[in-house]
Write a structure and sequence with these properties.
The protein is built from 2 helices and 22 strands. By secondary structure, the chain is mainly beta. It is globular, with a radius of gyration of 18 Å. The chain starts with a strand and ends with a strand.
């Protein structure tokens, strides 16, 4: 249902996450020789912490708690919750869906596309989910609605998330992310079954600073304790801007920006001002 890339075991080679509908997910570890080994169950992301295979839909694969290793967020259907898997040492993950309050916040939603982005530029990545039921007649056989609002899970910086339902209800499916108006805030475009797309211009980040790094696909960028990577494979049935976005909070400058390219080459920039786009190529 979805595909995402990140170097989860920190060996310098991109690995592959595949979400599967009602059967265990896949996590293909890069063997560095053109082959991959599937390790989802061993790593702890094939099933949730109840041992269930969810109706996994969209996914994003980014560092959400600023510890330098990519975490995994997956959307699923109503009554399943949307699992968040936190990276651990030695290529393992822990299901922290309920301790972070995401479980209770997402239980009633059916989610599709998703993205892990710092939507208010405070230095902590948030989560967006595009929601809508599978069926168009859900009301006739349950207490749920076919059309649902989208959801932002605001990162508190304390390993918990505050939910906020936004916009009108629809059978949302796709969501793509980019800074559409060049103001340093991540905007969102969503698609819905039977309706026109919706453009969400972000006005939640005006009080904070930002940096955007333009680089090659697969490159990792480190700024302070923040880690992100250049990818277009985000969410479900969607493709997003590969520009690497960082919310910088109150910071007007950064001491160091490190860009790690596929193949091992590293470029480092020092003493850069925030609120700018910087192109860094191998």
């Amino acid at each position: 249902m979805a595909l995402a890339f990140a170097d989860y075991d920190r060996d310098g080679w991109l690995d592959v996450l595949v979400t599967n509908d009602a059967v265990p997910n896949f996590l293909f570890r890069n063997n560095q020789n053109g082959t991959f080994t599937e390790r989802a169950l061993i790593a702890g992301i094939g099933l949730n912490d109840d041992g269930r295979a969810l109706s996994s839909m969209g996914a994003d694969f980014r560092d959400i708690n600023n510890d330098g290793s990519p975490d995994i967020f997956i959307t699923a259907l109503a009554n399943e919750t949307f699992p968040l898997f936190q990276s651990l040492p030695k290529g393992l993950f822990e299901d922290i869906t309920y301790p972070t309050r995401i479980g209770a916040s997402t239980l009633s939603y059916s989610g599709w596309s998703t993205g892990i982005y710092d939507l208010d530029n405070d230095g902590w990545k948030d989560i967006f989910t595009a929601n809508g039921d599978v069926n168009d007649n859900t009301e006739t056989f349950s207490s749920r609605k076919s059309k649902q609002q989208n959801l932002i899970l605001w990162n508190t910086g304390k390993n918990t998330f505050r939910p906020e339902a936004i916009g009108g209800a629809a059978r949302h499916r796709g969501a793509a992310f980019a800074d559409l108006n060049n103001d340093g805030a991540i905007d969102i475009v969503t698609s819905s079954l039977g309706e026109a797309p919706t453009i969400w211009l972000n006005n939640r980040a005006k009080a904070n600073h930002w940096l955007i790094i333009e680089t090659t696909l697969g490159a990792e960028v480190l700024i302070g304790n923040q880690h992100n990577q250049a990818t277009q494979a985000v969410g479900y049935a969607s493709s997003s801007s590969p520009q690497v976005h960082f919310g910088m909070g109150a910071a007007t400058s950064v001491e160091k920006i490190e860009v790690r390219f596929p193949g091992g080459k590293i470029k480092t920039l020092f003493n850069q001002k925030t609120n700018q786009r910087i192109r860094v190529l191998p």
